[in-house]
Amino acid sequence: MSALHARIDRVRVDGRDLIHDIDLDIPQSRWTAIVGPNGAGKSTLLRAIAGLQRCDGSVQLAGRPLADWPSRERARHLAWMGQQETGADDLTAQDVVQLGRLPHRPWLAAPTAADHAAVQAAMQATQSWAWRERRLGSLSGGERQRVLLARALAVEAPLTLMDEPLAHLDPPHQAEWMALVRARVAAGHSVVSVLHELHLALQADHLVLMADGRIVHAGSPADAATHEALKRVFGPSLHIAQIEGRWVALPL
Ligand SMILES: Nc1ncnc2c1ncn2[C@@H]1O[C@H](COP(=O)(O)OP(=O)(O)OP(=O)(O)O)[C@@H](O)[C@H]1O
């Protein structure tokens, strides 16, 4: 069974189809990267499969229509990390990460020892524990991103969707993010990330390429067909080569 399967005829906003003719399969216990040029529809697709954007079509989460999931159960199953999230700037970093635990406890109940442990583990994993008492609004872009990543990890959901999680992260923290994703996948979780960093997307298990509101290719990042599709979309100047056994993409 897929972690998620979506058939979306269209997402229409203000009389314009932002994405259309989508048939997306997210494999279980794998890391899927979604790539494509600016405006290709990646964020719209991610929001639609998370149930955050109305669409014409169907989304099956673990074989069950998304709309049939009770909201709290769905929030435990599907964790979300959006792009440039605002609204929690006055909360401490620790309280922001604690929000990820809300689906795990009854309405208005205090956090349990398990909630505190999950928050601490997630913040230590993203190296954000040191500034747990600081307000989110006082953190740098990269520090903030690591707190939001910790919030998504603290949900301990089988499926995590992340929109540009590497924005603002320096190369060592990008590498740490990849190690975190790998650890989650090894533990049986599924991860989907929209990425602009093609060299990192090529390390994923499965790559989905979008252009002009459609999925134009889906396959293994190691396949020649995937490399050809990337060159068709990003232009022939994109050079894809192997360095020390890893695929990299460079505009040359
Ligand atoms: N609420 C909206 N109303 C109108 N147009 C929108 C809306 N949201 C997105 N769009 C448009 O839909 C298209 C796809 O946007 P989307 O954010 O999904 O692209 P993207 O691939 O994630 O882009 P980027 O790489 O630049 O983040 C763009 O042309 C964008 O301007």
Structure notes:
The protein contains 8 helices and 12 strands. The strands form 3 sheets. A 6-stranded mixed β-sheet has the order 6-7-8-3-9-10, with helices on both faces. A 4-stranded antiparallel β-sheet has the order 2-1-4-5, with helices on one face. Strands 11-12 form a two-stranded antiparallel ribbon. A hairpin with a 2-residue loop joins strand 11 (238-243) and strand 12. By secondary structure, it is an alpha/beta fold. The longest helix is centred in the C-terminal third of the chain and has 16 residues, at 171-186. The chain has helices at residues 42-49, 71-77, 93-99, 113-125, 141-154, 171-186, 198-201, 224-234; strands at 4-13, 16-26, 31-35, 56-61, 64-65, 78-81, 159-163, 190-194, 206-211, 214-219, 238-243, 246-251. Helix 3 (93-99) packs parallel to helix 5 (141-154) and helix 4 (113-125) crosses helix 5 (141-154). It folds into 2 domains: 4-62 and 158-251, Rossmann fold; 88-157, no CATH class. The model has no long low-confidence stretch (mean pLDDT 93). Residues 13-14, 18, 36, 38-44 line the site of adenosine-5'-triphosphate.
Structure summarized in a few sentences:
By secondary structure, this protein is an alpha/beta fold. The chain has 8 helices and 12 strands.
